[in-house]
Design a protein that fits this description.
Blueprint lengths: L5 E6 L5 H11 L6 E3 L2 E6 L1 H10 L7 E8 L3 H9 L12 E8 L7 H20 L4 E2 L6 E7 L3 E7 L21 H10 L11 E4 L6 H10 L21 H16 L8 E5 L2 H13 L6 E5 L16 E5 L22 H4 L5 H12 L7 E7 L4 H5 L5 E7 L2 E10 L7
Parallel strand pairs: 5-6, 5-7, 9-10, 9-12, 10-11, 12-13
Antiparallel strand pairs: 1-3, 1-4, 2-3, 4-8, 7-8, 13-15, 14-15
């Protein structure tokens, strides 16, 4: 992980690759980041690994490639893993786990493939030190990811550990919370960056546990997403040298010193007071309670937040899907079980929401732009609004669209 730089791969949700490439270039201006299917690749050492883990809102993990090669049988995987000097990663007193992903692999058992990798690591460490490390499937020190393609295998060290969407602030979940990485992708796709020029004020009127507003507030306040959690690399050998540890302390101190007040108002509300309470507690742990105005209230009735005269506003939400809308993804997939509030969503909810927006959100001259994430491809016709954009996104296995509606007086379709 130290010099020379190793190949790094940052997996992300499908459709987010270009946004993640931009984010990586912002975090590491000198990096040559390349969008690939399902993620972004670049080269980097321990410093890049630390900065990406701390700063990426869109990546699922930061993987360090340690071996790559052709394979036909499990023995070839063993040989591939034996080529790595594992003493550079863990000591035999530490533990490991191997996870496998596969695309058109000829192998019958992915468990057996993972076992061969584990054997190679243990044998290599025993030969080098006389001791074998143990497997720990729950809290391993070294997490390996083996990716098997049809002919080639790639072995990665997972430098993140817990996936990066776990920012360390969510204790209160609610029923159908968005993943933090998806909320961040919605904001990035909308170009919302927490300034008057990049989307202006933000309001999530169906905020649930507060994911969108909390991600937005952290962006607006310059709070790095990883500041409140630990990472797997902190337990690995490349992190042990004193100069690496002091660099990590400095990177975190710099990140903390860059935190500032939000330049734009951020509002979050929900019809369920229980959810507003969850969201507020999550925001406190995320360090952004002061930056968000929380309210209870029905999205069909709440007046638009009052904004300074020239400030535009962004509405961003993933609304309740409701009973009637439960199976509506283009691919016919079933949405997650709706919450109690969702189940009582009236069938004309979206038409009434649009009517309310026309009344309450078009009086403000700079205008509001609404971004709605939904698995319902016909959402604009339910709302009787013409969308300005529709961006494909995946909410876990559910294919969705992020619809953009421009709420400017006179411009909305009747
Ligand atoms: C799919 S969840 C949103 C999840 C949220 N983005 C999160 O990450 O936790 C939909 C939310 O809409 C809320 N809701 C349902 N009907 C509403 C209404 N009429 N007005 C405001 N909120 C409503 C529900 O209470 C629920 O929290």
């Amino acid at each position: 992980m130290t010099a020379p730089a190793a190949p790094l791969f940052l997996p992300c949700a499908a459709g987010v690759e270009a946004l993640l490439t931009d984010e990586v270039k912002r975090l590491l201006p000198r990096a040559r980041a390349r969008a690939e299917r399902g993620g972004v690749s670049l080269a980097g050492g321990i410093e890049e690994v630390m900065r990406l883990n701390l700063g990426s809102r869109l990546a699922q993990r930061v993987l360090v490639e340690v071996a790559e090669g052709a394979y036909v049988r499990e023995d070839h995987l063993y040989e591939l893993a034996r080529r790595v000097d594992w003493t550079l990663w863990i000591t035999p007193r530490q533990t490991l786990r191997v996870d496998t992903t596969a695309q058109r692999s000829p192998l019958r058992s992915l468990n057996f493939a993972a076992l061969r990798i584990k054997d190679a690591v243990c044998d290599a460490l025993r030969d080098a030190t006389g001791e074998r490390p143990n497997v720990d499937t729950r809290h391993p020190d070294l997490q390996l990811v083996l990716h098997l393609g049809p002919e080639r295998a790639t072995l990665y060290v997972d430098s993140s550990g817990e996936p990066l969407f776990k920012r360390g602030w969510r204790h209160d979940k609610g029923d159908a919370p968005l993943k933090e990485t998806l909320a961040a992708a919605m904001l990035a796709a909308a170009g919302w960056r927490g300034s008057p020029e990049t989307g202006g004020a933000l309001h999530d009127p169906c905020c649930g546990s507060g994911t969108i507003a909390i991600e937005a507030a952290q962006i607006a306040c310059g709070i790095a997403p990883g500041l409140r959690r630990r990472f797997a690399f902190e337990r690995l050998v490349p992190f042990a040298p004193a100069d690496v540890q002091s660099l990590w302390r400095q990177i975190k101190l710099d990140a903390e010193a860059g935190v500032h007040a939000s330049a734009v108002p951020i509002h979050a509300s929900d019809v369920s007071f229980r959810m507003v309470d969850f969201a507020r507690r999550n925001a406190e742990r995320a360090g952004v309670a002061q930056a968000i105005v929380f309210n209870g209230g029905d999205a069909l009735e709440r007046p638009a937040p009052a904004l300074p005269p020239d400030l535009p506003g962004t509405l961003m939400l993933n609304p309740p899907y409701g009973e009637r809308l439960e199976v509506l993804g283009k691919s016919g997939r079933v949405a997650p079980r709706p919450s109690a509030e969702d189940r009582s969503t009236p069938p004309d909810f979206f038409a009434r929401l649009a009517a309310h927006w026309k009344r309450a959100y078009t009086a403000h001259p700079p205008g509001w732009t609404a971004w709605v994430l939904s698995p319902d491809m016909k959402l604009p016709s339910h709302m009787r609004l013409k969308e300005a954009r529709r961006i494909p996104m995946w909410n876990g296995p559910i294919e969705c669209r992020l619809f953009r509606f421009d709420l400017v007086a006179g411009s909305m379709r009747a």
